[in-house]
Amino acid sequence: MVYQHISVQPLTPTIGAVVSGIDLGAPSAEAFAEIKRAWLEHLVLFFCDQTINPEQHLKLGQMLGELHIHPAAPYRDDNPALMAIYAGPDSHRNNGDTWHSDVSADEEPPMASILYLQTAPEVGGDTLWANMYAAYEALSSPIKALLGSLSAKHSANYTGYYGDHEPQRKNPSAEHPVIRTHPETGRKALFVNQGFTRRIIGLSDHESQSLLDMLFDHIKHPQFHCRFQWQENTVALWDNRCTQHLAVWDYFPEVRSGTRVTVKGDRPF
User: Which residue among 102, 199, 239, 241 is the active-site one?
Assistant: First the structure.
């Protein structure tokens, strides 16, 4: 794909690309259109050496759509659309420490997440992303046929998850197809994740857990992944409709912190 306003360097043949030649604080309409094209192709994009303020961060998200409010996470600047990402010496856990698609337990899960990482540990703290198109396509035809007829229950219980922070709304719960169709590309993607998917509707407990365990193990295959080593002032933009990610917590007690803006999606089909 040819770009006139940005440079795009793929991280792997399957997923991920580093984008340069753009200031995310004030992207032109033409440059942003190319960013979106690259995003739909590579699923997660990384922009290094960026300096954006909260207003610019929010505006960047709004260029994709209406902003999503996390059900329970702390936030910055008295604005619940600016989700706080933090792990440090007093933390008992880090954000995203299990393979997941952001808030898939919502009736309309987010379509996009934009993380601006401002403080990175000296070493460690990488994040992995997985391509759910590729995960679906690698399944056998009989398994694809089985999964295509199934739905799954997604739910989240944030009780005590963010300490004393008062949740923005009740813990979400929803049923979604196990295989979803991306509303912009028309491609099919696997849509179950270890973070939020609890059971397959219509199967016995044993059948449901066995099938989910197989799919969760399948998703972990490195052929579907890219791994990104963060530097301070890096922005990542990913598509929650066709990716999952895992934040590695191997840097304790160092600090890793930033701010995430999330964009509303539609109901999976």
Answer: 102
pLDDT tens across 10-25, in order? 999 999 999 999 999 9
Name the DSSP class of 59: H
Read off the CATH number of the domain in which 250 is found. 3.60.130.10
Q: Is 245 a catalytic residue?
A: yes
To the query of whether residue 227 is one of the catalytic residues in this protein, the response is: no
Supply the pLDDT for residue 178.
98
pLDDT confidence of residue 166: 79
Which is the catalytic residue, given 100, 154, 180, 225? 100
Distance CA 107, CA 179 (A): 16
What tokens does 149 get?
């007829």
Which residue out of 180, 182, 241, 260 is catalytically annotated? 260
Tell me if 115 is assigned to some domain. Answer: yes
The predicted structure's pLDDT at residue 219 = 98
Residue 214 lies in a domain: yes
Residue 168: what pLDDT?
86
Range of the domain at 166: 7-263
Amino acid 169: pLDDT: 83
Taking the C-alpha atoms of residue 19 and residue 10, their distance in angstroms, rounded to an integer, is 9
Would you call 90 a catalytic residue per the annotation?
no
Domain count, the chain: 1
* DSSP state, residue 23: -
Q: Is residue 70 assigned to a domain?
A: yes
